[in-house]
Amino acid sequence: MAIDAGTQGSAKAAEALAQDFRNVVADAEELLAALGSDGDAKIKEMKDRVHESLHQARGRLNEFQASAVGSAKAAASATDEYVHQNPWHAVGVSAVIGGLLGYLIGRR
Questions:
Q1: Whole-model pTM above 0.90?
Q2: Residue ranges of the chain with pLDDT lower than 50?
Q3: Where are the domains of the chain?
Q4: Concatenated DSSP letters for 22-79?
Q5: How far apart (Å, rounded) are the C-alpha atoms in residues 4 and 84?
């Protein structure tokens, strides 16, 4: 159960990063819209390139997000299945890790 929470935490961090990136893209698009359609050909060409780059970045972000969520779900499922099949092994590994962490913390 704790491992699932850690995987969900990673998924939430990836989602927060994706949301921050979406906000940046939205702000850039708003800036492009604020520039308006006035201006010379060079400005229009630059706006078109930036708009295309933002469109491509948004597509890659969506692909990354789908991949990250899929990987997190697969890892959680595999971990859950392993722990259910080998409960004592999981308890033993957890105890060893907990003992090592306790020893290291106690030395400080």
A1: no
A2: 1-3
A3: 2-107
A4: HHHHHHHHHHHHHH-S-S-HHHHHHHHHHHHHHHHHHHHHHHHHHHHHHHHHHHHHHH
A5: 13
